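Handout, section B. The chain below has 793 residues.
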Amino acid sequence: MTAAEGASDSTRLDELADAFSARCRRGGPPPSVEDLAAANPELSDEIRDLFPLVARLEGAAQDAPGPSRAPLEFPGLELLDDGVARAGGMGEVYRARDRSLDRLVAVKTVQARLNTGEGRALFEREARAAARLDHPNIVKVFSFHPDHEPPYFVMQYAEGVPLQRACRGKDAGWIAAILAKIARALAYAHDTGIAHRDVKPDNILVDSDGEPRITDFGLAETFAAVDAAEAAGPQLAAAPRDEAGAGWGTWAYLAPELRTRGAAAGPLSDQYALGVTLYQLLTGGLPQHRDGVAALPQELAPSVPEAMQRICLRAMEPAPADRYPTTAALADELDRFLAGREVFARPTRYRRERGGRLRNHLTELSLWRRHRLIDTREMDRLALPYRRLLEEDSAWDELSRRFPTETALLRLGGWLAVLSGVLWLAFYWGELSRGQRVAALGVPCLVVNAVGWLFYWRSSRPNATAFLSSGSLLLPMLLAVVLAEYQLLRFPQAAALELFGGAAAAAAEPAPLPDGADAATRFAPTNAQLNAVAVSFGLYAAVLLLVVRARVFALWLGVAVYLCTSTLLLRLGLRPWLEEGRVAWALLHALPVTLSFVLLAGWLRDRAPSRAAAFFGFFPLPFAAALTLLARFGGEEWLGAAAAWDQAPVQLWLMLNGALYGGLAALLGRSVVGYERTFGELFLLLVPISLLVPTHVLFDRAPFLGTVGEAPLSAYALLGAAWSVALVAVGTRLRRSALAVPGLAGIAVTVWRATERHFESTLAWPLALALLGGVAMATGGVMALVRGRRRVG
C-alpha cells in the first residue's frame, strides 16, 4: 500500500502484525515471514525483524503434543470466571480468590501455544522482574510457581479499563495527571534497574478512582542483563533480543534506536513509548508519519495545549540524547504543566520547523534583492533577526531561560573564582608556601572542571558549559603555578629576554624545594613556561569546542591563539624590542595572526558557519588596533616622527589606514556571507574617523597655501573640507549614513574652525554660506524635477 492510498509504513506494519497475531490465536497456520516480506517488499526488512519471535513460538507450539489443555487448577486459589479475564501477548490472566486470605487476586499463566522452553523462560523473567517492584502504580506480584503445569504467578487484582478507554473524552489536564503518575512509576522501575520495554495503553489499567497501574512486564529486562549481553559483543547481544524477541515490544511504540537494531532497550526507550502513548491520548490516534515526520498533535487536535505538545515531542525525540534525561524529569515537566508554570521542553522538531520557515524567509529576501526591490544593506538589516534565530541558542541562553537566577549566580561565581586566582598570583604569592600556592588554584580548578565534565556526561550541556567555561580559565593559571613552583619546562633565556627578568631567568634549584619553602617572593614563570601554558589553554579550549560545542569555547580558543602569539614573540625577543623602541617591528609580526582568522573562518564557512562567524570576529578589531598602533610607533621608528600622536607622519598614516578600511568595507560588503558584510559595516564606521580626525589634528599645521583673512590657510584644512564633502557625496550615493552623517559633522566642524580662524570679523561670511546652501538646494531640486520628467516621459 502506498502513502497515497492512505496509510503510512508504520500503520501498515501494525495492521500486518495484528492480522498475524489474530490468525495465530485462532489456531490457523500463520503466513510465513518470507511470504509477508514478498507481499510487502517496501517493508521486507522490518517484517523480517519483527515477526521471528511469533513464528518460532508458533512453530514450537504446533509441534508440541497434546490437542488441548486440561481445565486449569491452582492450589489455594478459586477461579471465579470460566473464561480469560485478560489476554496479553504472552500470557492469560484469570480472576481468582485466595482461599487462605479471602481476597481477590489475578492469576497469570503462560498461553498454551507458548508453553515451550523459550516461552516459559520469558514468562519466568516477567514474574521475577515484576516481583522486584513495589509501587502503588505497578501491579504487585505475590508469588511465582514455575514448577506448576502450566507455570503461573499470583498478583494484585487491578480492576479497571485500559488507559486509552479511560482517557476518552478527558481534557489535557486529566491526561497529564495520569501520565505523571505512570512516568513516576516507570522512573521507580528504572531506578530499580528494570526497563518495561512494552509501554502502551493496553498495558496500563485505570481504576474507577483514576489510579493507573502498569501491568505486563513480559518483555522487561534488567539493565545488568542488557549490559552483559552487549559486553559479549554485537552478535551475542543482538541474538537474544532479535531472535528470541526479548527486545521487541509493540512496533508503533518502539523507539527508533530499537527499530534499527543498533541499541539495547532501556529507560529512554520506555520514555519514547510513553511519549507515543501521550500522543495517542491527545490526538486519538498513533503518530502518522509523513516523509519520516509525525504530524504535530495540534494539527490533528487543535485543542491540544501547546505546552503538552512540546512535552510529547520531547519525549518522542528520535535521538535518545534529545529526550528528557530521565522519566522522572518527564513527570516533573507534566507537574509543571498541571501547576500552570512554564514548561522547559524545547523539542528539536520546533527548531527544524523554525529553521525551515526562516530559511524560506531568507530565500525570499534574496529574491527581493535580486529583483532590486531592496539593496544588500536593506536585506542584511531585514535578515539579521532571522539569522540570529537560526543560530543555535548558546548554552548560557538555554540555561538562563530555564533558571535565570541560578545562571546569574553561576556566571558571577565562576568569574569571582577566576578573579581570585589572579589575585593570588598578583598580590599574595610571597605570603604563601608552595603547597598553599598550588592548592589555592588547584582545588577550585579541579573541582570546577570535574563538575563541568560530570554535567556533560550526564547530558546536561548548559550546566557543563557554565562550569567548564570558568574551569578552562582557571586551568592555565594552575598550570603556570605548577610549572613555576616545580620548575618544569623552564628553558630560561637571558634575563633581558625574559618577561619577568632575572627572577624568571634564575637557574633552577638542584632539587625541588621542600614544602613550605619559598622559591621566590613573586610569581615569575619563564617565557617558555608561559608559552607552554598558552598552548595548553588553546588545546583545552579546542577540545571543549569540539566536544561540548558551545560558542564560548570558540572565544577562549581565539584568545589562546593571541596568547600563543604573544608568548612566542616573547621568546623571539619581544621585551628587548619594546625596551629598545622597536614596537612597530613587534606589531608587524602580530598582523599575520589577525589575518589567519580570516583564513580559518573561510575554511569553516561551509563546514560550521556559526564557528566561522565567531573566529572571523577576531580579525577586524585586532587588525584595526594593530594598524592604529603601527601608525603611531611606525611613524616614530621608521619615519622619524616625534614620540607623540599629533605628528604629521602619524596622522598621514592614519589617513592611509582609513583608505584601507574603505577598501575592506567595499570588499566585505560584496561578500555572499552575512557576517562578513556585518563586519564590513564596522570597517565603514572607521573610514570617516580615520580621514577626518587627522585633518583636524593638523588643521593649523604647515604646509600653508596662502593667507585668508588674518591667518594662513593650511593644506590640511582644505583636505578636511574635501574629505567631508566626499563623505557626504559617497555616503548619499551609496545610501550609507555611516559615511554621510560624519561627513556633515566634519563640514560643521570645518566651518566653525574656519570662521574662528579666518572669518570672525567678516559679517558677510554667514550670508555667503546661506547663499551657497540655497544655490545647492535649488540646483538639486531642479535636477530632480528634470530627471523625474524624463523618467515619466
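Note. The longest strand covers residues 91-98. Compare this with the example in section A.
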